[in-house]
Amino acid sequence: MSVKEVNLGLDCESIAKKVIDNRANWIDRSNLFYTFGAAAYIDNCMEYFVYLKRSNKILKKEFGGLIDKLCEHFSAKTHPEIALPGFHIFDYRGNGVDASIHLDTPYKKLPIYSEDFENPRSFTILIQKPKCGAGLNVWGEDGVKNYVDYKLGNMYTHSCGLLHQIANTGNMEKDELRITIQGHLITIKGETYIYF
């Protein structure tokens, strides 16, 4: 299992500005980082419903063109019962904290989840990069850890069955942010859906 990299030609500076301008809509996650949007892997069913009702409208208004571009790239569609792709925002509060090593299985928590599913995938796009860098640790079937160095504006896609970890690349300064677009894909009964 590998990580695929592609450049979508995004205007990262403009996207980052919109994210920062919407700071009032960020959701604080355990005082360690923020999401802009509901996130199936963190939220319980009630939280997910409440957050997506609020966030989906804002994300569609501010980033509708970007979401359409992602849907076109993956031949995917959105669904009113699941959260649109959103953002991870990290600041200096995460310095020295190691993220969990995990597989991505948020699709099991989706209200549209069916056991008749195929090809679950995850993707990340780096929108703003701190001086210390940003990347992903991944473990292949051989158990060896490899580091994927994120390049600004590039999208990294992998199977949800790939063991991985947000890489701790060093300490961020107080005025820095690490901003990524986050999303997942799941195919159910022949339809591919994009979500966070």
Fold topology:
Blueprint: E1 4-7, H1 12-21, E2 27-29, E3 33-36, H2 45-74, E4 86-90, E5 117-128, E6 135-139, E7 145-149, E8 154-159, E9 163-166, E10 178-188, E11 191-195
Antiparallel strand pairs: 1-8, 2-3, 3-4, 4-10, 5-8, 5-10, 6-7, 6-9, 10-11
CATH topology: Jelly Rolls
CATH class: Mainly Beta
How confident overall, as mean pLDDT? 96
Rg on CA atoms, Å: 16 Å
Give a count of the beta strands, DSSP E runs of length 2 or more: 11
Query: How far is it from the N-terminal to the C-terminal residue, by CA?
Result: 22 Å
Task: Please indicate the percent range of residues in DSSP E strands (runs of 2 or more).
Answer: 25-35%
**C-alpha geometry:** globular
Largest sheet: 8 strands, antiparallel
Q: Tally the structural domains.
A: 1
Query: Which superfamily, in CATH terms, is the homologous superfamily?
Result: q2cbj1_9rhob like domain
Any low-confidence stretches, pLDDT <50, length ≥5?
none
Q: How many alpha or pi helices?
A: 2
Helix/sheet category: alpha+beta
Helical proportion?
10-25%
Provide an overview of this structure:
By secondary structure, this protein is α+β, with helices and mostly antiparallel strands. The protein has one domain (4-195): Jelly Rolls (Sandwich). Helices cover 20% and strands 33% of the residues. It has helices spanning 12-21, 45-74, and strands spanning 4-7, 27-29, 33-36, 86-90, 117-128, 135-139, 145-149, 154-159, 163-166, 178-188, 191-195. It is globular.
